């Protein structure tokens, strides 16, 4: 940028894993506005362990006030996007040369804030934590990363509970080499978890919060538990993107993009993360590939280069995945299946908490 030239305006909607990092990395290169409706960033993977260790919440709820040095963080809800601006629910309008929509996904409580209030999120987490502490039996419906990690965390912190992990798939993590799922199943069973595979739940009473009751499996079995966790996946938050012209949603609810993560007829609008159907899963690991591409590409475009001259985004062929079963054991896929030590060192011990606290300008 030549001396005396005004910085181009970048407006980012959503302060989750995509939005906060893109905003932080572009802060020195553009006039950045980050729009986020929630009071603070919450680190979702660590919310699982926080159910067993409530004091952890103080480490994983991160305010935005130290994130940017020159840009601004605006608390509000975006309701419309045009070729040149983002409008909020309160009527304020933010002009933009480039717009990034990173509105993320929603999930059953208490793994993500259900609304704007951190106090409400803390209360939801505390309520479930108390229910879990009192429960003698737990059923977890859904054996993706959240469900599997939840089973492992409970078994590690509160041994002796009757824990049942239910999956509709015939193996754990079927998209990965069989060894990963086989070893995770074996370790869960050694920890006292009953792993039920190849069974759908026919009568899940709630999708939003844990509850006491029973679930009926497709083979007729009934699993009764003091606490049933519905952990059946994220729902992409695409209401804002759906208002753009030329948007193409897929059955999962995610939004198709072109080669440069643009979802609509507006060439200045980009999307990433859970809302973007680009061949990546709805995981933080996917973002670890999308964010660097988006940051690098936007820096080039901010310097006057055409987006079509930039290298297109290429998704993971098979993304790495880290699956701790509590702070000490677990398995991961890092282009080969690895076990307890690497999983513990990379994720299980600290859950990346120091990394994110540093990013938000907070002490360890």
From TrEMBL:
Keywords for the protein's UniProt record, in alphabetical order: FAD, Flavoprotein, Oxidoreductase
Superkingdom of the organism of origin: Bacteria
Residues covered by the Pyridine nucleotide-disulphide oxidoreductase N-terminal domain: 9-42
InterPro entries for this protein: DHPH_N, FAD/NAD-bd_sf, FAD/NAD-binding_dom
Domain FAD/NAD(P)-binding, chain residue ranges per copy: 75-278
Family note: Belongs to the FAD-dependent oxidoreductase family.
Protein name from the UniProt record: FAD-dependent oxidoreductase
Originating species: Ruegeria haliotis
Lineage, opening ranks: Bacteria, Pseudomonadati, Pseudomonadota, Alphaproteobacteria, Rhodobacterales
